[in-house]
């Protein structure tokens, strides 16, 4: 394409909230064969909401929530925030029903416990110590790697959550599995329509996620994607992009997280969700400022139409 064509396309993009960082990516966008979507925060709203707190240990429900929320209080992960929010509401209503005490406002976190040695374990969950005992909050992999036994009835509870497209977060305290949190993250409203539109344009949509297989499959089915890669560790997303490129096909990646930045850089066209992390935005060729998936189509369409017309 001529410099003029690129300038025009870049201008049209900007007007539509699609920031294009270079002419090369703009040219490549018209030949995209695969679009790889991150799940959490890209296909889904990324506004995870805790729906369920199931205690398996006979522990008091409020105590369980206090422990889990305290463990997640330093986490920046959407799942951690969802758990904290659920516990905050529980304690607020608990306070209201307790007529002896004056109740605090619902923004209060004064019930949180002191946490030491916190670490976020990407693709697994979080680990820290409360009262000198280790607490683990995360997926099966985290439990397995720490030798925590997940009994059959607990496993079944998690499977049921996953089959309804929720994520089950397991909680172990002092080496015992004490409960499970269920977390829902609804699809973006436009997601299914955009996937259908891409297919009509001859583009193959793919989903990648660090989440478990069952939740991933349930979400993929809802949105209309058949090609799914789940339980992918952060570095694995870029490998998936590279393997799709092997046959000479051009691959776009759409993502929002720190985890997605290697894949955004590896892709022929990296598209970052505008509401995403700075690192993702930096690694991408395109920034979708409105954070709407419709703009994945806008971007490809713009490249196809504008560059073909002004030649
Ligand atoms: P995605 O690729 O979908 O954005 P991540 O790689 O961030 O997912 O996380 C993968 C999985 O690791 C989550 O689905 C969850 O099971 C677990 N996990 C990660 N961070 C946390 C956390 N702060 N609390 C609980 N579980 C977590
Ligand atoms: Mg994400």
How would you sum up this structure, described in words?
The protein has 311 residues and is α/β, with parallel strands linked by helices. The protein folds into 2 domains: 3-45 and 187-309, HAD superfamily/HAD-like (Rossmann fold, 3-Layer(aba) Sandwich); 49-184, Calcium-transporting ATPase, cytoplasmic domain N, CATH 3.40.1110. 43% of the residues lie in helices and 23% in strands. It contains 13 helices and 13 strands. The N and C termini lie close together (6 Å).
Q: Helix and strand layout, with pairings?
A:
Blueprint: H1 3-15, E1 18-20, H2 23-29, E2 32-38, H3 39-43, E3 49-55, H4 61-72, H5 78-97, E4 116-121, E5 125-130, E6 133-138, H6 140-145, H7 152-163, E7 167-173, E8 176-184, H8 191-200, E9 204-208, H9 213-223, E10 227-229, H10 236-245, E11 250-255, H11 261-266, E12 269-273, H12 278-283, E13 286-288, H13 294-309
Which short descriptors sum up this protein?
binds magnesium ion, HMA domain-containing protein, 13 helices, binds adenosine-5'-diphosphate, 2 domains, 7-stranded mixed β-sheet, Calcium-transporting ATPase, cytoplasmic domain N, 311 residues
């Amino acid at each position: 394409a001529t410099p003029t064509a690129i300038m025009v396309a870049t201008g049209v993009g900007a007007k539509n909230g699609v920031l294009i960082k270079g002419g090369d990516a703009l040219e490549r966008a018209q030949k995209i064969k695969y679009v790889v979507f991150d799940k959490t925060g890209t296909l889904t709203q990324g506004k995870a909401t805790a729906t369920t707190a199931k205690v398996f240990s006979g522990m008091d429900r409020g105590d369980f929530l206090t422990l889990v929320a305290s463990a997640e209080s330093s986490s920046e992960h959407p799942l951690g925030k969802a758990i904290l929010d659920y516990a905050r509401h529980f304690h607020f209503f608990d306070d209201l029903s307790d007529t002896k005490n004056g109740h605090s406002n619902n923004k209060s976190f004064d019930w949180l416990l002191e946490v030491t040695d916190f670490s976020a374990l990407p693709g697994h969950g979080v680990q820290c110590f409360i009262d000198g005992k280790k607490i683990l909050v995360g997926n099966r992999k985290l439990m397995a790697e720490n030798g925590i036994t997940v009994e059959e009835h607990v496993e079944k509870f998690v499977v049921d959550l996953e089959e309804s497209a929720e994520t089950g977060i397991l909680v172990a305290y002092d080496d015992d599995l004490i409960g499970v949190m269920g977390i829902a993250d609804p699809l973006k409203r436009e997601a299914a329509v955009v996937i259908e539109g891409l297919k009509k344009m001859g583009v193959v949509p793919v989903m990648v996620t660090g989440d478990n297989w069952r939740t991933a499959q349930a979400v993929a089915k809802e949105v209309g994607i058949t090609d799914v890669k789940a339980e992918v560790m952060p570095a694995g997303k870029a490998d998936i992009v590279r393997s799709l490129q092997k046959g000479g096909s051009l691959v776009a990646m759409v993502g929002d997280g720190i985890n997605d930045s290697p894949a955004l850089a590896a892709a022929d066209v990296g598209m970052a969700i505008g509401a995403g992390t700075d690192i993702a935005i930096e690694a991408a060729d395109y920034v979708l400022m409105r954070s709407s998936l419709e703009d994945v189509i806008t971007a490809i369409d713009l490249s196809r139409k504008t560059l073909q017309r002004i030649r």
